[in-house]
């Protein structure tokens, strides 16, 4: 039934919940991948923040030259931090939204736009693409999360 809250025993049969689970897994895996991208840049640019990480490149003073920042490492870290700021709220609000009984087509639109915007944001940040590409991709994803939050509040509190 449209508009009815999903029962926990029926979640696996709920198409909206399955869509939520699919797109949430995609963005969470993308966020996890950013850890590997950051590690790749740290290793290839030999730019570390912890002294113990430099020991394979030299002991003592010779290893200290690798305790430094690198623009590529910092760019990858900022993508990862931005993911944490945006994907974590999507996971929570998206779950509440999925359980609030939205139409499948509306839910898919929300989930797909958010996922696409986060992937585009990552490429726009890492390549980097000229602005306003990165800013727009961030704003679209952020707007989707707000839209879902509004719909949850509207359903729960009859706003």
UniProtKB/TrEMBL annotation:
<dbReference type="Pfam" id="PF01124">
    <property type="entry name" value="MAPEG"/>
</dbReference>
<keyword id="KW-0007">Acetylation</keyword>
<comment type="function">
    <text>Conjugation of reduced glutathione to a wide number of exogenous and endogenous hydrophobic electrophiles.</text>
</comment>
<keyword id="KW-0472">Membrane</keyword>
<comment type="subunit">
    <text>Homotrimer; The trimer binds only one molecule of glutathione.</text>
</comment>
<keyword id="KW-0808">Transferase</keyword>
<keyword id="KW-1000">Mitochondrion outer membrane</keyword>
<dbReference type="InterPro" id="IPR040162">
    <property type="entry name" value="MGST1-like"/>
</dbReference>
<dbReference type="GO" id="GO:0005741">
    <property type="term" value="C:mitochondrial outer membrane"/>
</dbReference>
<dbReference type="GO" id="GO:0005789">
    <property type="term" value="C:endoplasmic reticulum membrane"/>
</dbReference>
<dbReference type="GO" id="GO:0004364">
    <property type="term" value="F:glutathione transferase activity"/>
</dbReference>
<dbReference type="InterPro" id="IPR001129">
    <property type="entry name" value="Membr-assoc_MAPEG"/>
</dbReference>
<dbReference type="InterPro" id="IPR023352">
    <property type="entry name" value="MAPEG-like_dom_sf"/>
</dbReference>
<feature type="transmembrane region" description="Helical">
    <location>
        <begin position="20"/>
        <end position="41"/>
    </location>
</feature>
<keyword id="KW-1133">Transmembrane helix</keyword>
<protein>
    <recommendedName>
        <fullName>Microsomal glutathione S-transferase 1</fullName>
        <ecNumber>2.5.1.18</ecNumber>
    </recommendedName>
</protein>
<keyword id="KW-0812">Transmembrane</keyword>
<comment type="similarity">
    <text>Belongs to the MAPEG family.</text>
</comment>
<keyword id="KW-0496">Mitochondrion</keyword>
<keyword id="KW-0256">Endoplasmic reticulum</keyword>
